[in-house]
Design brief:
Responsible for the release of ribosomes from messenger RNA at the termination of protein biosynthesis. May increase the efficiency of translation by recycling ribosomes from one round of translation to another. This protein has about 190 residues and is an alpha+beta fold. The protein has 4 helices and 6 strands, in the order αββββαββαα. It has 2 domains: about 100 residues, Orthogonal Bundle (Topoisomerase I, Chain A, domain 4), CATH 1.10.132.20; about 70 residues, Gyrase A, domain 2. About 25% of the residues are buried.
């Protein structure tokens, strides 16, 4: 029975990839002084009785490096979109021009850059915790198989494989964090 054990490393890798994808999304939402359509991805608008992403109520464009525009398709939704942006915590003051909402991206001061660096660090720590949770699940599966009669050599082999995968993803999180912090601190 112990020879039948096969740890689903593809599943563990997929779940760790999910943590990395989530980290990239969170990093994209951090404003670095340059306009980016992805910074609006986490903003949800109360539209037609439910929370809807901004890109589903209008077209998001970046016409110039320090400006994001949203062309709202339904005129009745303009105020809801503006309200969602104001309450999002992005620190951007929307300006209305008919059905077009303009978001001028102000220059970041040193204090705000440090704050954003800390927020990026928190996002990275959440990703590390998620990756470690996946690692723990894998280790639990191995321990269960060991209790069912897996040999100690096989246990060590599988644990080493899970640990190597974990180290690889933690290193990727650290590299992504370092890159994002450099981007934030760039003037």
């Amino acid at each position: 029975m112990s020879d039948d054990f096969m740890l689903d490393t593809d599943d563990l890798r997929r779940r760790m990839d999910g943590a990395m994808a989530n980290l990239r999304t969170e990093f994209a939402s951090l404003r670095t002084g340059r306009a980016s359509a992805s910074m609006l991805e986490p903003v949800m608008v109360e539209a037609y009785g439910q929370q809807t992403p901004i890109n589903q109520v209008g077209t998001v464009n970046v016409p110039e490096p320090r400006m994001v525009t949203i062309n709202v398709w339904d005129k009745s939704m303009v105020n809801a979109v503006e309200k969602a942006i104001r309450e999002s915590g992005l620190g951007i003051n929307p300006q209305l021009n008919g059905t077009i909402i303009m978001l001028p991206i102000p220059e970041l001061n040193e204090e705000r850059r440090r704050e954003l660096g800390k927020v990026a660090g928190q996002y990275a720590e959440h990703a590390r915790v998620s990756i470690r949770n996946v690692r723990r699940d894998g280790m639990d599966q191995i321990k269960k198989a060991k209790a069912d009669g897996m040999s100690e050599d096989d246990q060590k082999l599988w644990e080493g494989e899970v640990q190597d995968m974990t180290n690889e993803f933690i290193k990727a999180v650290d590299a992504a964090l370092e890159t994002k912090q450099e981007e934030i601190m760039q003037v």
